[in-house]
Design goal:
The structure holds 2 protein chains of 2 kinds. By secondary structure, chain A is mainly alpha-helical. Chain A has helices spanning 15-27, 32-55, 60-71, 74-126, 128-132, 142-151, 158-194, 203-232, 237-269. Chain B is globular. Helices cover 60% and strands 17% of the residues of chain B. Chain B has a 3-stranded antiparallel beta sheet. Chain B is built from 5 helices and 3 strands; from the N terminus they run H-H-E-H-H-E-E-H. The chains are: A mainly alpha, B alpha+beta. At the A-B interface, helix 2 and helix 4 of A face helix 3, helix 4 and strand 3 of B.
Chain lengths: 270, 107
């Protein structure tokens, strides 16, 4: 007769314990490592409990039944274990979303920089009023006018000084934001090479979010630009057209990427 | 003692059992049952999620060990866990003293 306290896993399986473990395997959720650990601990526990009962004189079948009954129903145990791993799952999801979020911020900043470059072209072609102008009749305070005139002494009027200031500020800010966007994207690429693995960007999710965000912003900004052009003519619609145009273009690219990856997935799953 | 009542104090009981040194799950349960003269008789599976929670809190650490061909997870108190045990023990004693005073006065 074998020593019941020294029973290895290579011996004949205990059917009730095996069935309990099978049901537990089906009921466990969350990270594979956590589930494997729960299964291994439960398996060792149940075998220890059966061994102890057999050593105390129970029949193997009674020992199994009693050990399982004392351990508790599979559903209750799995639910309690899944609650512990739910927090882990949430943290893992947040960690997974960090890189896509940084990537989208980088793309967004780059888009702002690109709209600044278009603003520069529009300013050269149609003048600063078309891009940065306020609606006709806008009044500026004396202090503001004095400030702008001091910065742009060549301007003949307060409005001209305001336009020069808005142009300089607007273009400089967008240039800086665009450069930051490029730096973020380059840093992500560099980081992924440093870690000798590809960027973990879930392309369908990122492209869908980008298409929705850029699409919404593009429609809103272009609509606002059209409204501005209809109501105030050449006073400032250019800025909205450039930003809206860039957003619509980025949304179209993102939608195309989404459609292609989605189609590729469907083909693979057939 | 009812299981629901016991669950509220399970963390303190687990920390107390582990204060003596590293122990695996099955042993923790048998020690709990033995030390309480059979009063604390929870469904045994209840202990593992509680151990996992305590480990995530940083009060326990665990590692695999193999004995007699069987792999078991050994749990041990961390320094933080030891400090938490001292605090929880003191808090429980204050509570028990208060309960005893009130119940004693009622009888």
């Amino acid at each position: 007769m074998s020593d019941p306290t020294n029973r290895g896993f290579d011996e004949a399986p205990r059917e009730l314990v095996e069935r309990y473990l099978d049901e537990l395997y089906d009921a466990l959720r969350g990270p594979a490592r956590h589930a494997r650990r729960v299964l291994a601990e439960t398996e060792a526990h149940l075998h220890d409990a059966v061994d102890a009962r057999v050593a105390a004189g129970a029949t193997p079948a009674d020992a199994e039944r009693s050990a399982i009954a004392d351990f508790g129903p599979v559903a209750d145990f799995a639910r309690a274990c899944n609650r512990v791993s739910a927090r882990e799952r949430a943290l893992a999801l947040l960690a997974d979303l960090r890189i896509p979020a940084i990537f989208l911020v980088g793309v967004g900043f780059f888009a702002i920089g690109l709209s600044g470059a278009i603003d520069r072209v529009l300013t050269s072609a149609f003048g600063a009023q078309f891009v940065f102008g306020d609606p006709p009749g806008t009044r500026y305070s004396a202090a503001d006018c004095q400030h702008w005139m001091s910065l742009h002494p060549q301007a003949a009027t307060c409005t001209q000084a305001y336009l020069a200031e808005a142009r300089d500020d607007g273009l400089a800010q967008r240039f800086v934001i665009g450069v930051v966007g490029v730096l973020i994207l380059v840093a992500l690429l560099w980081w992924s090479r440093l870690r000798t693995r590809a960027l973990r960007v879930p392309v369908p999710l990122v492209s869908a979010v980008a298409a929705a965000a850029f699409g919404t912003a593009g429609v809103a900004l272009t609509g606002y630009g059209v409204n501005r052009a209809v109501n105030f003519g050449s006073h400032g619609p250019g800025d909205f057209f450039s930003a809206g145009g860039v957003c619509v273009a980025f949304a179209a690219v993102a939608a195309l990427v989404f459609a292609r990856t989605w189609e590729a997935r469907r083909t693979l799953s057939r | 003692m009812g299981n629901e009542q016991l669950k509220g104090h399970l963390e303190l009981l687990l920390l107390e059992v582990l204060a003596a040194g590293p122990v695996h799950g099955y042993d923790i349960i048998t020690r709990l049952r033995d030390r309480s003269d059979g009063v604390f008789d929870l469904p045994e599976g209840t202990v593992y999620p509680a151990l996992h929670r305590l480990e995530k809190t940083g009060w326990l650490r665990s590692s695999w060990s193999t004995e007699g061909g069987r792999r078991r997870r050994l749990y041990a108190l961390t320094e933080e866990g030891r400090a938490a045990l001292v605090t929880q023990r003191a808090s429980w004693r204050r509570f028990a003293t208060g309960m005893h005073a009130v119940l004693g006065a009622a009888t």
